[in-house]
Amino acid sequence: MRATVIHALGDIRVEDLPEPELQQPTDAVIRTVAACVCGSDLWDYRGINPVTRPTPIGHEYVGIVEEVGTDVTNVKPGQFVIGSFFASDNTCPNCLNGYQTSCLHREFVGGAQAEYVRVPLADGTLVATPDLPADEHVASLLACSDVMGTGWGEDGVAQVKELTDGVGADAVLECVGTPESMRQALHSTRPGGNVGFVGVPHGVEINGEELFYSHVALRGGPAPVRGFLPDLIERVLAGRINPGKVFDLALPLDEIAEGYRAMDERRAIKALVRP
After folding, report:
1. Which of 176, 213, 235, 267 is in the most buried spot, having the most CB atoms within 10 Å?
2. Can you give the pLDDT at residue 174?
């Protein structure tokens, strides 16, 4: 199969790799309908996260189930599915508390910028649509697998009201980019308030005493996208939301290196690829 492999800083290649196979009875293999480049992938592309060996890359995906393990009962071959970037059983205490990305059995789902993807813990990770979706919905369903689910989640700015016991927030301040941005958010929040942050922070340090005297709560972490998928999928298919607008560049898989370059150079917000 054709798959995206990062070799080093700025070195993205599409190569022929073996097709994934079931390794556990809880696995599924899906044929990728669409994938994309995440902002988190740029940490590796820019060399901020070291790349020590050629590694398949990508963690946002939608596709058609090709094969399932003997223990999989919630999805079946032929179904269109959306999954999270962390596989979860959706039954452990952390999952039941709404934090599937802290599942006691979690596994990272990588190598999704490819023609096929193996998804562990398929019953707890994948959510099927009622029918095969129209092509016009594919981009929005793909967005739900990470970027929309992250923005929608309790740790995201879009839903910071969830942190205030349902009473809502009078104002939300979004600060991104630097350690100073985090400090700005901390000092702009009233005592007893909350700061939600999304994405993987790099080089951000908060002084413990400064945080202690602020009476402000910081909350973040990998978004528990799996918990939001059923609701988000329903909203997309009903036409209530269209998060696929975030994709302003679409490419075939063999040209995905251009997607990385365009995002790195800020010529594109987010690149969608189709195998």
Report:
1. 235
2. 52
Judgement on whether residues 172 and 266 belong to the same structural domain of the protein: no
Interaxial angle between packed helices 135-144 and 225-237, expressed in degrees from 0 to 180 and rounded to the nearest 10: 160
Give just the sign of the alpha carbon dihedral 41, 42, 46, 49.
negative
Same domain, 110 and 238: yes
Residue 163 contacts residue 217 (beta carbons within 8 Å)? yes
Co-location of 8 and 112 in the same domain = yes
The boundaries of the domain holding residue 252 are 2-150+223-274
Q: For residue range 130-175, list pLDDT tens digits in order.
A: 999 999 999 999 999 999 988 776 444 444 444 444 444 455 555 5
Specify the pTM: 0.88
Give me the number of domains the chain comprises. 2
The answer to whether residue 104 scores a pLDDT higher than 70 is yes
Q: What is the pLDDT of residue 156?
A: 43
* pLDDT tens track for 180-203: 778 888 888 889 887 777 677 777
**206 CA to centre of own chain:** 25
Same domain? 185 vs 210: yes
**Pair 246, 120 in one domain:** yes
Residue 45 CB partners (closer than 8 Å, separation 6+): 6, 9, 10, 12, 260, 264
The verdict on 127 and 43 lying in the same domain is: yes
